[in-house]
């Protein structure tokens, strides 16, 4: 009975090992497929060439308000972590505040996001309105200053 039990134990161990290897490989392959589908469905591919990107100009992003994090001033636990990287804010860390909705993020996280996207990552409020309004104001100011200059009035 000894050699038969050894053979059965060996076969069972081999089958369990093979099943485990197949399980692990399947998980890895399915995870890669899911990630690639998510990237194509969401339209967020941080590896896109720059010409396809519809984010905000760096000047517009830099003009958005910032705030130093202070745990005493933030009310809820949800406000104490970045919604992009899910990392906790550290004391006196600089955060960028979205102008329309007030959501806040790590400076580096949101700046990368806004190079690729033009909406708030949490509520999807469009931020193009801000940049377009500033550009319109700047264009109006340039047009107005050219019309009132002495060189244009003589021609």
UniProtKB/TrEMBL annotation:
GO-annotated molecular function: zinc ion binding
Cross-referenced Pfam families: zf-RING_2
Annotated RING-type domain residues: 82-124
Keyword terms of this UniProt record: Membrane, Metal-binding, Transmembrane, Transmembrane helix, Zinc, Zinc-finger
Transmembrane regions: 6-30
Protein name listed in UniProt: RING-type domain-containing protein
């Amino acid at each position: 009975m000894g050699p038969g039990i050894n053979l059965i134990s060996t076969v069972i161990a081999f089958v369990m090992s093979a099943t485990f290897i197949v399980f692990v490989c399947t998980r890895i392959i399915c995870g890669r497929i899911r990630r690639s589908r998510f990237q194509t469905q969401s339209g967020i591919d941080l590896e896109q060439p720059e010409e396809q990107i519809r984010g905000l100009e760096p000047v517009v992003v830099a003009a958005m308000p910032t705030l130093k994090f202070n745990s005493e001033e933030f009310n809820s636990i949800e406000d104490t972590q970045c919604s992009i990287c899910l990392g906790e804010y550290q004391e006196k860390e600089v955060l960028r505040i979205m102008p329309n909705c007030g959501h806040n993020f790590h400076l580096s996280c949101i700046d990368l996001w806004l190079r690729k996207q033009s909406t708030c990552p949490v509520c999807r409020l469009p931020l193009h309105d801000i940049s377009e309004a500033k550009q319109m104001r700047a264009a109006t100011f340039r047009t107005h200053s050219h019309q009132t200059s002495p060189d244009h009035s003589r021609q």
